[in-house]
Amino acid sequence: MTGFLFELSFWLAAPVWLVMIFAPSWPPTSRIAASPLTVVPVLLVWLTLAVPVAPELWAAVSSPDVDVFRDLVATSNGAGAVWAQVIAWDLLIGQWMFLEARRLGISPLVMGPLMVLTILLSPIGLPVFLVVRAVAGGTPGHRTARRQKAVTLP
């Protein structure tokens, strides 16, 4: 059962990723990406996996120690719970990236591969997106400067 739940956590997130990557202009895609509720099914999987290892999970997060964490993920429920948590977090990051890219007018041809990179390795995908976002003028300083120029021009 744990193996099934482990795989299910990805498959519950996959439809959201698919519409963001392959149907970015489809009207419902932006509404889907804007909803934090997309992670609820994945978090229910997390809850199912986490409850049986709650004491071990609490020990691993309340007093972080590599040996305690290793013991947690050595169990199938512990590894599955951590995996579901990663899937949920990556999905929220991907949704934010999608919405930011749409707001800034970043091409879906740029974002598609970047979203795939984020699915696979979000610690690489997110910083790459932040660079793309900065180049596209999406940093707070760029927006403020752009607004000030617009206000001061005749």
UniProtKB/TrEMBL annotation:
Q: Which UniProt keywords apply?
A: Membrane, Transmembrane, Transmembrane helix
Source domain of life: Bacteria
Which InterPro entries does its entry note? ABA4-like
Protein's UniProt keywords contain Transmembrane helix: yes
Q: Which residues cross the membrane?
A: 6-26, 38-61, 81-99, 111-136
Q: What is this protein called?
A: ABA4-like family protein
Source organism (scientific name):
Streptomyces solicathayae
Q: Read off the lineage from the record.
A: Bacteria, Bacillati, Actinomycetota, Actinomycetes, Kitasatosporales
